[in-house]
């Protein structure tokens, strides 16, 4: 290369490596087949091209590589570079990291709730709270899946990345509280979905080290798979299949960290396919950017229509999360979700404790709590002893590590849904997403019932050592109303009710799904309806969030579909 090119390339290279969170000493990759996309040839060809090496994409790719040549294109980096960054102590920090190389890309839905989507190999499993719990048999049956194969696939995942949680003091108190207030029966440590209280699985091992969907690539056949990192797919390419008389996907265009475009094509064989596993935000977004979506919306963005499909981006749903922060007079362990109460009215109660917040969070909390306590003290609503515990609360909540925890609820479903629309033609930009939390009154009823259960748990004997006794639950709830939970309108506490609490303090539990729903955008084999050689397999195909928390089923689905696709590939004629 010419001297002038070197002059520009070298500083750019160094800058780019720093930008992407790599350093020269950390370049020994976990897998021989994992490389930065800057080293990819300009043109590649494979049997399967998987867009998104996330929670579903990794198990899918590992499985397909057992019988075909597989390419994974992941826009994020490696989760193996700095394992500490993603361990249990750094849950909040990692999620609130807003540098360009962060594994979490934040977005705010039109509902005014701060949310995040993954940008890393392993996807959401690198950011999440780790709880692992299977879907109910009913969910599996209603999805039309083979129950035997689903069970085998869950086990395949569990063997590699699932652990029994330690269940220390805080988690045990919540579990016992749930039992005491009647979320029964108690089902012990159990990965299955059943009413009552149970201890679920977790992807954190006993040292708090996170295991992720990227670890499922250990199952891959190294000679038949390539995983490129920092490879952002910009477009799926289509030509016209004259025999089938419809568009057929034949390749993709992706951009590396230097801004250089590459093309990946399918090897010419009728069974080869492109599989979109970019998650519930990324998959509908990329379908639209590639010309599959509502024609009028695509026209607005100057995108050439390949297939007018008004249902792309519809059915977006996010299970609302509502929480109560409970400061504790005694120290608590660091824990993310380990136990769950699966109520009969459709609310799931979970808990976390000892979370570490960065200093900016602590400072913000400090200000709010000071403000609230000043007001409370002035109005003298509480007896003197309560004032002391409020002062304690301020102290305990503003430490970088929270002395206390949260009890939270997620509602089943949900029934309320919204939609996704493009804002720009850049796949790195967030689209506009609307979830319409609590639009359906049934969702609100579940939330209120769940809140009542949380209040009962806080008041239970089992939980009593973690509670300031002179501080009524009402005071905790008043605190919550002053926290900047979201940017939704707040209502005066005069109008306060549990309904209003649910609506005003809603957060996300990050279980959003939909946008490419099964039976609407994809058929029951996850093939995109109306085109050839393209599937979508990930959380965007769901109608409801599976199980109490979805990752078990998302990973299972990757394995499950990999098996099904390979079977079909090798057993011709068989249905
Ligand atoms: C903070 C948080 C906490 C959670 N807690 C839990 C929990 O405790 N238990 C649980 O079960 N679930 C939990 N979840 C939910 C769970 O992690 C997700 O439902 C799941 O990871 C979604 O998987 P997916 O494969 O559909 O998408 P993802 O895992 O997001 O995978 C999509 C991948 O595609 C990549 N991608 C997107 N667009 C492109 C493009 N154009 N080109 C190339 N690559 C692209 C992304 O970088 C990403 O890696 C949590 C999620 C979060 C964020
Ligand atoms: C379901 O999956 C099992 C395990 O892979 C398989 O043996 C069985 O034939 C499948 N059943 C159907 C109806 O496809
Ligand atoms: C709370 O009251 C103290 C003492 O009156 C005052 O110094 C402080 O600024 C107040 N804080 C807030 C946030 O209102």
Automatic annotation (TrEMBL):
Protein's name according to its UniProt entry: Glucose-methanol-choline oxidoreductase N-terminal domain-containing protein
Domain Glucose-methanol-choline oxidoreductase N-terminal residues, every copy: 279-293
Signal peptide residues on this chain, from the entry's feature table: 1-25
Family: Belongs to the GMC oxidoreductase family.
Gene3D superfamilies registered for this protein in UniProt: 3.30.410.40, FAD/NAD(P)-binding domain (3.50.50.60)
Any Pfam family the entry gives: GMC_oxred_C
Binding-site positions, FAD: 74-75, 120, 233, 510-511, 539, 550-551
Disulfide bonds: 447-502
Any one GO MF annotation of this record: oxidoreductase activity, acting on CH-OH group of donors
Record keywords: Disulfide bond, FAD, Flavoprotein, Signal
Protein's UniProt keywords contain Membrane: no
Source species, domain of life: Eukaryota
InterPro entries in alphabetical order: FAD/NAD-bd_sf (IPR036188), GMC_Oxidoreductase-Related (IPR051871), GMC_OxRdtase (IPR012132), GMC_OxRdtase_N (IPR000172), GMC_OxRtase_C (IPR007867)
Source organism (scientific name): Lupinus angustifolius
Cofactors that this protein relies on: FAD
